[in-house]
Every structure is written in C-alpha cells, then in structure tokens.
Amino acid sequence: MPWISSIQNNLYMRATRSVWQSQASCVDFDDELIYKPKIGPCQFNNAEFKTTLNFSAEGRFTGEKPASTGIAVIGDSHAMGWGVQDEETFAALLQKMTRRPVYNLAVSSYGTVREVLRLEKSGLLDKVDTVIIQYCGNDLDENKSGQISGIEENRKKFKKITTGKQSFMGVLRMIRKTYGFAFSFPFKRIKAAMAQPARPTMAGQAADDFSSHYQALMAVLEKHPGLRDKRILIFYNNGPGQRFQSFPVGKDKRLPNVEFINVIVDAGEYYRLDDHMTPAGHKTTAQQLFQSLGKHK
User: What is the pLDDT of residues 27-51, one digit of tens each?
Assistant: First the structure.
C-alpha cells in the first residue's frame, strides 16, 4: 500500500539509513574535493545490502585492467556503486564487455564540478579516450556555483559530514518526526494535487525540466580543456521512476564531442527502500552503455 510504503521509506531515509561519505573509515579529507575514498577496503551496510568497497588511486576496483586505452566513469553514488559489490558495478561489467580498462572514479554526492576535478587529479586523463558521466538531478546546485571552496571551509564541511552522528534521543526525535511526516504525506499530496495544475509525468512521477541542468552542466565541461579531445557520453540516473523533460538524446550541438544517452532502468531494478540500483540495475545500465559505445565512434 502506498501509505505503508511512505512510512517505511521515510523512516529508512530520515532515521536509519547509513550514508557512505559519513563513515570516517571510508573517506579521507581532500583540500579541494572535501572528501575522497580512502585507499583500501570499506564496509558499507544498510537494511537491504551488505557490501565491501575497494578503492585504489585508480578509483573503485573493477578487476584487472586490460592493456589498452581506457574509459573513465565519473558520477555520484549511482555510478560509484552504492549497494553493490565491486564486481557488480556497471563500470566493472563494462570492463568485461569492452575488454578495455574502465576506471570508476565516481564518488557519492559529488556534482559534476568535483567529478571532473577528481578525474583531472587522478592522472588518468592521458590513459583514457572516453569519459562516461552519470548525471543526477542533485548535481544542479554544485554545477551552478561552479566553485570549489577554500581549504578551511572544506575542513569544516568534512568534519560536519564525518562527525554528524545523532545522539540516541536525536534519533528518537527524528523517528517521531518521520512517522508524523509519513502519516500526513498522503493528505499533503492530495491537497497539492488539487491546488496545482498537473505537470507532465513519466513513469508515474512529475518530470523535471532539464534545460537549467543542461546550461550548468555544459558550463562546467567547457571550463576543462583536457576534456575536449575525449569522447564524452552523458546519461542520467535519478533513482526509480524519476525522469527529465527535454533531456537531449544524441550528439550535442554545443560541444561536438559530447553525446547524451537515455539509459532506461526498470523501477524493479532499484532497492525498494533505498533509491539506488540493485545488481540487476547495474547490469541493465552496462548493457545499454555498451551498445552506445559501439555507435558513432
């Protein structure tokens, strides 16, 4: 029932969910990126999964690298592989399909600004001729600002992120608020629907307009000359059923080396409580990206 699902989802997301970048055992401070993956293994568990993430200077482990020109994957938690094992990420699967090295440099909660900066700082740009960017709707604010904070400000942000655990009483208060929100949610939705005209929807949810996202995203890419000789494929993953209006599929007119791809993942290929892909969702994503890589070389 939607009402019960609302209670479950909000209780999980607001009170009991572990966040990868909040675990001090998983991240190190970075002057510009705020945090970056700690080299070595990292345990990351939630209600629907138990995973071990392994990182090196080349990103999350994707298997032994073939000897050829590679592909870099950048993005946020969806591309990093939140909720799946190393070998189950679409980056690892893509490496097996293409028989080319795939470097998974995606990091949870990064916007495109930090994603590209991480790629540049990795020293891997000269080893790749293709960059796959997984875009998410929450990248917009970071991309609009286009700014990297100073080192002292980033230290404060890092401390807040990694020491933000609530007290027991704080958790209880959050649970109480969550149940209140969940019980009132159906009535708020009905009231909002009656007060506002309907918006175009896809997969049962309101679709966000991509035009503002596009402008900010292109502005970020244009600032980095090191990307100009790379083939860049961009697709979005906003979670189950979340779509964009006016998402541009095909070759970009503004930057001729950029191509937008519409990757479709079924809602059943996401965790029911969490908003990240299951291993099946990563497999679907890898298959569609593999097909796109073979086109318009």
Answer: 999 999 999 999 999 999 999 999 9
95 inside domain: yes
CATH number of the domain to which 131 belongs: 3.40.50.1110
pLDDT tens-digit readout, 189-215: 545 444 544 433 333 445 689 999 999
Residue 136 lies in a domain: yes
**How many domains in the chain?**
1
pLDDT digits (tens, 9 = 90+) for 49-75: 999 999 999 999 999 999 999 999 999
Strand pairing class (250-251; 70-74): unpaired
Q: Which domain holds residue 51?
A: 2-163+202-293
C-alpha distance from residue 270 to each of 10, 16, 172, 198, 237 (Å) = 16, 18, 28, 26, 11
The answer to whether residue 212 is domain-embedded is yes
